[in-house]
Amino acid sequence: MAHYAKVVDGLVIQVIVAGEDHIATLEGTWVKTSYNMHGGVYHDPETNAPAEDQSVISGDEARERKNYAGIGYHYDGTGFYSPKPYDSWTFDSTTYCWEAPSAMPDDGKIYIWDEDNTTWKERVGPSNPPPDDGKNYTWDEYAEEWVEIT
After folding, report:
1. Nearest-angstrom CA–CA distance, 141 and 115
2. CB 3.0-4.6 Å disulfide test: which of 36, 69, 99, 107 passes with 80?
């Protein structure tokens, strides 16, 4: 059993787990993908850390495809990559990942990308829970407040 992505016009529309024999019976283009790949690096399934032995990528078609496929991802015949998250980000053709114009700070805090200012902004989470009035709320990162879901 392995993971396969159904690709239509370069776009992933479905990802399933199946045997190669079953995939051969399906219509369309199905491309094998590896759940343990990110940025062209194989991650150990037990620890989710980059595996010490990266030679496991060579000769394994799924592991050579840079990233695990997701619905909405693109496939160019070489690798899978996500949709472009922000206009200012650029595509790295080695890792098949999008990169921000500046590196995210590495100080243990959580950051979100602020496209308007093309910079990282510290994520400010809710300091208290949402109102307890039976309605549904979501946290608005930018307004830094609970907003009712209607």
Report:
1. 13
2. 69
